[in-house]
Amino acid sequence: MLHEKGLKAEHAYTAAFASIGLSVVSWCGSMKVEPAGTARADRWGIFVGEWAPTFFALGLALANYERDHDLLHPITHCPTPTFRNRVPPASRLRRRPP
User: Fold this and answer.
1) How far apart are CA 71 and CA 58, in angstroms?
2) Which residue among 56, 67, 82, 98 has its CA within the 20 to 30 Å range from the CA of 19?
3) pTM
4) Burial class of residue 20 in the structure, from the number of CB atoms within 10 Å of its CB (0-12 exposed, 13-18 middle, 19+ buried)
5) Rounded to whole angstroms, how far apart are CA atoms 72 and 54?
């Protein structure tokens, strides 16, 4: 369902790394702004930090879905040509007579 809505594994991984950074920023910001002190800052940082494993799990699930979807429907994706496919091997090159 998420994949059909346009969410890809890369999006979930990006959200996971962003939530790690947001956790540190919110902890530091809460330490300076909140009058409750360290205890409140720790709880807020941990709360935001709990999002990262969820986003990583979603990323893994979406990556598995994308891999399985590509195996089941290979016609919808065009293979990209490689350098080997574009350049003929030396045995197929014709030599011009001198």
Assistant:
1) 20
2) 67
3) 0.60
4) middle
5) 27
pLDDT in tens, 18-33: 999 988 888 887 777 7
Alpha-carbon distance of 63 to 67, in angstroms, equals 6
Within 13 A of 57's CA, how many CA atoms are on the CB side? 5
Burial 65-93 (b: 16+ CB within 10 A, else e): eeeeeeeeeeeeeeeeeeeeeeeeeeeee
Amino acid (one-letter) located at 93: L
Question: Could you read off the pLDDT of 65-95 as tens digits, one per residue?
Answer: 888 876 665 555 455 555 555 555 555 556 6
Q: Which amino acid is at 88?
A: P
